Fold this sequence. Notes:
By secondary structure, the chain is α/β, with parallel strands linked by helices. The protein folds into two domains: 2-85, CATH 3.100.10.20; 91-331, CRISPR-associated endonuclease Cas1, C-terminal domain (Four Helix Bundle (Hemerythrin (Met), subunit A)). The chain has ten helices and 13 strands. It has helices spanning 54-63, 87-99, 101-129, 133-152, 159-176, 183-188, 202-225, 243-266, 287-302, 319-331, and strands at 2-4, 7-10, 16-20, 23-28, 31-37, 43-47, 51-52, 66-70, 76-80, 275-277, 283-285, 304-306, 313-315. Strands 1-2-6-8-9 form a five-stranded mixed sheet, with helices on both faces. A four-stranded mixed sheet has the order 5-4-3-7.
Amino acid sequence: MTLLQNTLYVTTPDAYLRLEGETVCVMVEQQRRLQVPLHHLGALVLFDHVMLSPALLGRCAEDGRSVVWLNRSGRFQARLEGPVNGNILLRQAQFRTAEDGRAALVLARATVAGKLRNSRQVLMRGAREAKSGADRDTLVKAARLLAIQIRKLPQAETLDALRGFEGDGARLYFESLPAVMREPVREQFPFEARSRRPPRDAFNALISFLYALVLADCRAALETVGLDPQLGFLHAVRPGRPALALDLLEEFRAPLADRLALTLINRGQIQPGDFDCREGGAVLLNDKGRKTVITAYQERKQETLTHPLLQQDTPIGLLPHIQARLLARFLRQDVRAYVPYLQR
């Protein structure tokens, strides 16, 4: 159970929330685990099998306090809103920002800056842990080039120019990423460049699968706060494409997906036998491999870290939810700037 930005996140399975006077009481196995004044809460977000009393549900609807249900993996299931809520105003602000070219560019720049900075952190961490001087030099050089790309971002006066800087940075990052792998692993997981739809090697298949898991969490986070996941600022809008969820994903590719992928292969938790080669050259995780990755990802989401902006201990699985709420605050003009998640 975590209280962040006036939102109570309940992740304990079979917890029961009830109304006691003007407070919310969280019961687990008939034991009182938490009691929070109602006026401190703007929303409840419930994971897995969490139950609410009818009285609490009715009070939340009456007060306009949202209640959101997510499944065990964090996928959005449902939302309760009372007769008066701010979602329409928030979505209007989202659409106005998307139609304002300059405002959309500012948000897109923040997204790309977060992505490249987090990618650089992966390389710098790899350089500190490198066993050979050649690998260390490769990673340090790539990190310096990425720093140059980050400094260029303010020069981008159009989305196309910004996407060009992002593409160049991503290429530099992926070209040097094998140096983060342990030397014996490089023979098992040869990786030369990013490939997708379909992935052409095991490492590409692994990170593509992890990106899909993180994307689902990003979409759930946006829907939880009432944003439209289809309308983004960096990614072009297309029918059926969750453009804003893809925008949010960019901040978390390196810290949540790439780092976990590297850990899994460096520790031998994922082996070449966890992948299948398909007709046409596609490589995909098999059932055993998917189970291993999903388990590791869920365990990773339970770990905690100090959020760099809030300076509060936070479960990793809630990071997309925090960023979604920070984005909503920016769109409502409650804060002057949107600060992307920056890995330490």
